[in-house]
Design brief:
Layout (H helix, E strand, L loop, with lengths): L4 H8 L6 E4 H4 L5 H9 L2 E3 L5 E2 L12 E6 L2 E4 L9 E3 L6 E4 L1 H11 L6 E5 L2 E4 L7 E4 L3 H4 L4 H8 L4 E5 L4 H9 L2 E5 H4 E3 L5 E3 L6 H5 L3 E4 L4 E4 L2 E4 L2 H14 L8 H9 L10 H14 L4 H7 E4 L3 E4 L5 E4 L1
Parallel strand pairs: 10-11, 11-12, 15-20
Antiparallel strand pairs: 1-7, 2-7, 3-4, 4-5, 5-6, 8-9, 9-10, 13-14, 15-16, 16-17, 18-19
The structure holds zinc ion.
The site of zinc ion (ZN) has 7 residues, from loops.
């Protein structure tokens, strides 16, 4: 199967600008969709070529060949041997510059969110929908995507649900973003173009229920908590506290007082080095924040309610694994 025009453009957009589409590559895609991309500025035609690649298997040593028009056609001339001249097709002389920013603009248009489109940093676009709480970040270039700390910069710029549309990446690479609570989807898979050049965007269905109410699972032995997509490692006491909060949340009296927390951690024989319950709660909250949740999320997940103490306010399912 030949690559679609849109897939070709996304693939070219993975490299650094300026990006060129050669007439020979483009020829099989000429038609209404192509014309529309020209009209919308995604593609910009360059002046016709005046030089051609040097001939293969030739010792003429020329870096480039002159193009000449003769006998009703264009020819790339070999300075040494006329028999090596190459006859060129009309489309060979054409080339187009690809503008990824305009291509990203078409995504915003397809989502009817052109007003919400902004450039977050070079090569990184944010589409902030007016009503949907989820925002979309588009990064067509691989170089930009692999930039160290990109996930942190994105998180700083926008909290909440974030969907990153980018070139397809390996699972190990995707983990960087997943850990920061950023969902990812490949550009080529989420966009398609009709034969007349109308772009359609199909965003991956996030399990709305599941993501609005992420499941919370504590793995006691592994000292790890999974909250939705996020995996956070905890130390011993916060792990035990979180497990206790989960168990308690399932009872009619879901709160743990500072004293209860101390009992959970130390039992009836508190050592002299025992820390007050609120310190352990703080340690748990800090660990969750370091793990990628924001303070507000943590504050509403582990809620302090007056002198009744703390309770876990989790709408999703909660489990404690051994
Ligand atoms: Zn030659």
């Amino acid at each position: 199967m030949t690559e679609t025009l849109l897939a070709l453009l996304w693939r070219l957009s993975e490299t650094d600008e300026p990006i060129f589409l050669w007439g020979r590559q483009a020829a099989c895609h000429f038609g209404p969709a192509f014309d529309r991309l020209l009209a919308s500025g995604v593609l910009q035609e360059c002046p016709p070529a005046t030089e051609w690649d040097p001939c293969v298997d030739c010792s003429c040593g020329a870096d480039a060949r002159i193009i000449q028009f003769r006998e009703g056609a264009s020819w790339a001339l070999c300075p040494h041997d006329r028999h090596r001249d190459t006859r060129l097709e009309d489309h060979d002389l054409r080339s187009f510059q690809v503008h990824p920013d305009s291509l990203v603009g078409l995504i915003a248009d397809a989502l009817a969110q052109r007003k919400g489109l902004s450039l977050l940093m070079p090569g990184v676009w944010l589409i902030e929908p007016s009503e949907d709480p989820a925002a979309i970040v588009v990064v067509p270039s691989r170089g930009t995507l692999s930039q160290t700390g990109l996930e942190g910069m994105l998180r700083e710029a926008r909290s909440g649900d974030l969907l990153l549309l980018a070139p397809s990446i390996a699972a190990t690479e995707r983990l960087r973003f997943t850990r920061a609570g950023i969902r990812t989807a490949p550009l080529a898979a989420t966009t398609s173009m009709s034969s007349v050049g109308l772009l359609t965007v199909t965003l991956p269905q996030m399990a709305v229920e599941a993501d609005a109410h992420p499941a919370l699972t504590v793995f006691r032995g592994a000292r790890r908590v999974a909250w939705g997509d996020r995996q956070i490692t905890l130390s011993d006491q916060p792990t035990r506290l979180l497990a206790a909060l989960i168990e308690q949340a399932k009872t009619p009296r879901p709160h743990l007082t500072a004293r209860d927390v101390e009992d959970v951690i130390y039992g009836s024989l508190a050592p002299t080095t025992a820390r007050p319950g609120r310190d352990i709660v703080r340690e748990l909250r800090d660990a969750l924040t370091r793990g990628g949740l924001n303070r507000a999320e943590v504050g509403s997940l582990i809620r302090r309610e007056g002198n009744r103490g703390w309770r876990l306010d989790c709408q999703g399912t909660m489990r404690v694994e051994p």
